[in-house]
């Protein structure tokens, strides 16, 4: 990876290009923005490339409390540290880093525990500002504040990220940036959900509801864990051929099940229910179907998809009591970014973890709206956007 930086920018505002979302669902506008220097505990990052995640699409369309505009979206990326604020020793100028929406402070009870990846000092929340100072580092050329997104905002040539949200790449020369950026969110979330949250066992059975990038990453994680049967559930039959690359062994199309519910089909395929079921779409009805598809006694249902604000789940307390199943949430796949992303990076370098097949398109920043169109139409897995590269 290249690590060239402009000279004499430390401590000064930087003017650069960014894709700004001005209002809900409107095409992003490529415009000049001003990126302020980092404050205490922060670093300013030159983004090399970023990839488009479905969460960007969700919040691009957001209204109400989630709809903060103007905003710079983007949260899967890799970049190089341009400068750091006071009290930052973990990274320095020139370091390659992966920004992640999940924090790992390394100091709180949760970060020191193996049981949780939910940092207490910097808890996950939706905010348009920096986590430590509750202010923005972005303004447009007229001086208007531009909101941050998931503490990353990678659809900008430069961004400012708190150090608790940065994972340093120790050996950047061995890792292409258009693969490293995938571990910022989607692939890590899916692989981690199988590996860390569910703790999928060798020889077990897995059912995955929804075969977008996250669902396919769950399949990849289950494959790495040694699952014997990995069932994909999706309305698009083409997803089975794609999913085979990531370990899918079987496929269920809900539209072709006749009068049988999907849960009954899966129970018949697995002699009583899958050991692990993953909901990767973000629909309460699919969570219920995944729960029904789990084996009694030890089945685990893992919720990975992001549902609409206010969506609720309703389970019979009697069913929960007598079935012996459990349901779990999996934010960022249960991974601690600084602790676990380096393990995934090494597994990619060692040719164990597949990343290459997730990248279906690459383009420059000026074409970012085309990337949104492709994702909305279901025509891509991951589209990598290069900040300075021309195609």
TrEMBL record:
GO cellular component: cytosol
Alphabetized UniProt keyword annotations: Metal-binding, NAD, Oxidoreductase, Zinc
Enzyme Commission number(s) from the entry: 1.1.1.1
Catalytic reaction equation(s): a secondary alcohol + NAD(+) = a ketone + NADH + H(+); a primary alcohol + NAD(+) = an aldehyde + NADH + H(+)
InterPro entries per the UniProt record, alphabetical: ADH-like_C, ADH-like_N, ADH_Zn_CS, GroES-like_sf, NAD(P)-bd_dom_sf
A single GO molecular function term of this UniProt record: alcohol dehydrogenase (NAD+) activity
GO biological process: formaldehyde catabolic process
Coiled coil: none
Residue ranges annotated for the Alcohol dehydrogenase-like C-terminal domain, each copy included: 214-338
Co-factor requirement: Zn(2+)
Alcohol dehydrogenase-like N-terminal domain sequence ranges: 41-170
Family (UniProt): Belongs to the zinc-containing alcohol dehydrogenase family. Class-III subfamily.
Description of how the protein assembles with itself and partners: Homodimer.
Protein name: alcohol dehydrogenase
Source organism of this protein record: Acacia crassicarpa (northern wattle)
């Amino acid at each position: 990876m290249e690590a060239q930086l402009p000279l004499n920018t430390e401590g000064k505002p930087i003017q650069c290009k960014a894709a700004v979302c001005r209002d809900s669902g409107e095409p992003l506008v490529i415009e000049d923005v001003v990126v302020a220097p980092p404050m205490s505990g922060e670093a300013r990052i030159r983004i090399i490339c970023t990839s488009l995640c479905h969460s960007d699409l969700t919040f691009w369309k957001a209204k109400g409390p989630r709809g903060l505009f103007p905003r710079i979206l983007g949260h899967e990326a890799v970049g190089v540290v341009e400068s750091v604020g006071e009290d930052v020793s973990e990274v320095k100028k020139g370091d390659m880093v992966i920004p992640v929406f999940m924090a790992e402070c390394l100091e709180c009870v949760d970060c020191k525990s193996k049981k949780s990846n939910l940092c207490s000092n910097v808890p996950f929340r939706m905010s348009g500002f920096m986590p430590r100072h509750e202010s923005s580092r972005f303004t447009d050329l007229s001086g208007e504040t531009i909101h941050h997104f998931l503490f990353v905002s990678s659809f900008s040539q430069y961004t400012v990220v708190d150090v608790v949200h940065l994972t340093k790449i120790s050996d950047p020369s061995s890792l292409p940036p258009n693969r490293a950026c995938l571990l910022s969110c989607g692939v890590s979330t899916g692989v981690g959900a199988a590996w860390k949250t569910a703790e999928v066992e060798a020889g077990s059975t897995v059912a995955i509801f929804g075969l977008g990038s996250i669902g396919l990453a769950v399949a990849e994680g289950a494959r790495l864990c040694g699952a014997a049967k990995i069932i994909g559930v999706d309305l698009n039959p083409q997803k089975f051929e794609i999913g085979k690359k990531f370990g899918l062994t079987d496929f269920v199309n809900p539209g072709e099940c006749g009068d049988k519910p999907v849960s009954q089909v899966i129970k018949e395929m697995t002699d009583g229910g899958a050991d692990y079921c993953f909901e990767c779409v973000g629909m309460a009805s699919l969570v219920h179907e995944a729960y029904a598809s789990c084996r009694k006694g030890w089945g685990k249902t893992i919720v990975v998809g992001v549902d609409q604000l206010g969506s609720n789940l309703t389970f019979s307390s009697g069913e929960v009591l007598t079935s012996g199943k459990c349901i779990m949430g999996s934010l960022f796949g249960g991974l601690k970014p600084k602790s676990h992303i380096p393990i995934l990076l090494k597994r990619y370098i060692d040719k164990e973890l597949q990343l290459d097949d997730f990248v279906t398109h690459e383009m420059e920043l000026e074409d970012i709206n085309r990337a949104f169109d492709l994702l909305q139409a279901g025509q891509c897995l991951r589209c990598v956007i290069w900040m300075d590269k021309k195609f």
